[in-house]
Amino acid sequence: MPRALHKFFATVTALLVGVLVLTGCARLPMSGEVRVGPVIDGGLNNEQLYYSPSAPSEGASQDEIISGFLNAGTGPQNDYAVAREYLSESFRAKWKPTDEVLVETGKPVITFDANKRAQVTIKVQSQLDERGVYSVAKPGTERTLDITFVREHGEWRIGSAPNLTVLIRPIFEAIFHSYTLYFFDKQNKYLVPDLRWFPARASTSTRMVTELFRGPSEWLAGASGSSIPAGIKLSIGSVSVANGVASVDLNSKFLSLTPTQKMQFKAQLNATLRQLSSVNTVQVLVERSPQSIGDLNARVSAPAAQSPVVLTEDAFTHTAGAISPNFSHITGLAKSYEATDFAVSTDETHAALLGKDGVHLVLLSSIGSSPILVDARNNTVRPVFDRQGYLWSAGKPAGSQIRVIGMEGAAFAVPAGWLALANREEIAISPEGSRIAARVNTPSGNQVWVSSIIRDKTGRPIGFGKPLQLAASVRSPISISWAGEVDVAVLDLNDGIQTVPYIATIGADSISTVGIENGTRVVGSNAGDIYVLNQFGDLARYRSSNWERVISGVIASHFVGH
Three-class SS string for 83-135? Predict the structure, then answer.
């Protein structure tokens, strides 16, 4: 599935780099092509691989000092001790290598001015900030690094340089691993995932907890926050892991929290730290005194459905099983409204039909209930339900209204914010309801954007946060669907016939799957399952690197809650 695909490719990359290392010397190439590499030290386990870059050689030129310094960014052990050997004694302690990581593509260009100051121009593929937030750079992005030199003890050393390191893609993926931090939404009901990248080492657990204290990424701040009040800190400066137990020792201010706040914090810790293979349980202590804290049943999303729901000319049903009693009267309504699409709420109590007259809300649990026309516009995108029980119906033209409907049928408008700037082709709400993905038509072509959903204390949506562009490598996206906590499935039109589904991960790169002909709609599930509906009504499932036809004669298909 999507997250597994990322881990698979990262593992393969690390293995390939390791093979290259065995055949070469300790010299990192200065281009995007990996030919030889430095020696790898074994870490805590097979997934924790580190490079051992070379220290500066006696009599090294300025050019060699620059190259060696950049190469030494591959060695994060001991706070980049080897890289600091290339720096002057006065600058060594000031340099902050973790403020930023640049992932380069191509060969750096090094130039010197008359005063022997150097400029290094890097073609940037992506970057990582000091909080571990990853972003893909726009094509053609370049950064110029200014470097000065001093003479110390007869040797050239770097007197000033930017607070960053530079890595090529394979080495970045071998050194850094992705981890998900979990924060509560503003209603303290659901956990919101926030993907970060950290060097995989013994201190990773400490880094994860430290970032939990600091709160969510900037783009998520409007929709989520930490349940950890200011002033609460680690009492001993680190999180220890032994015998499967991660011990989080806090200062005494933790004792002032309410029982609910303590459980919320523990829920964040459990969801975050148990990603580590070395952690089975989490123990909270206050100045070495174990705390008894109850468990909070906090979830990121609804339980994953086993199969999608399909609308055909003859039925409205799950693909794998009998027709739900709640769906028994939908088929007739769909025919009468000439429905072309639909949505089903997470609890399967409500459905929405998009037909010739607009969007109708249907109470599934009552056969005799009358559908409610909640949006009479004829230019709306497919309606979607969120986890909080609201139905979303958005007009396609730029500037048109985004309408949200409660289960009782009352509608209200949400300020469109950045969504007002482009024609909307499709929207999708994340499993926990805190984020929105949209396929928009801009002057630069079709693009996929994602942002937070800002809600009031009752859970009612009131706006949107700062957007991020997803799947920048996708040329012509024609359909989107959430396919996991941080993954959005994107169907790309390749050549007019061949369509290629991509997994666009928020905070990582996009990964393509096997192409499929004549695809029109991608359908994802909370568990990461991916289906594609083609123009002939065939619904196919992606399994074991192949597409398997599930059912034919399909008008539309979606998972509940999507």
Answer: HHCCECCCCCCCCCHHHEEEEECCCCEEEECCCCCEEEEEEEEEEEECCCCEE
Task: Find, among 201, 197, 192, the residue nearest to 211 by Cα.
Answer: 197
Residue type, 461: P
Mean pLDDT of 287-306: 79
Please report, in angstroms and rounded to a whole number, the separation of the first and last CA atoms in the chain: 18
How far is the CA of 549 from the CAs of 322, 508, 516, in angstroms?
A: 19, 30, 11
* Amino acid in the structure at residue 428: A
Tell me the backbone φ, ψ of residue 137, rounded to 5 degrees: -80, 155
Distance between CA atoms of 337 and 353, rounded to whole angstroms? Answer: 8
Question: Helix, strand, or coil here: 303?
Answer: coil
Helix (H), strand (E) at residue 4: helix 2-22
CATH topology of domain 309-558: Methylamine Dehydrogenase; Chain H (2.130.10)
Within 10 angstroms of residue 238's Cβ, the number of other Cβ atoms is: 17
Q: How confident is the model at residue 50 (pLDDT cuts 50, 70, 90)?
A: low
Looking only at the bridges linking them, the beta strands covering 435-442 and 445-455 are antiparallel
Domain boundaries, the chain: 2-175, 177-290, 309-558
Q: Please check whether residue 521 is in contact with residue 491, taking contact to mean a CB–CB distance below 8 angstroms.
A: yes
Q: How far apart are CA 321 and CA 319, in angstroms?
A: 6
Q: What is the pLDDT of residue 367?
A: 66
What are the C-alpha distances in Å from 141 to residues 57, 105, 118, 475, 495? 33, 10, 20, 18, 27
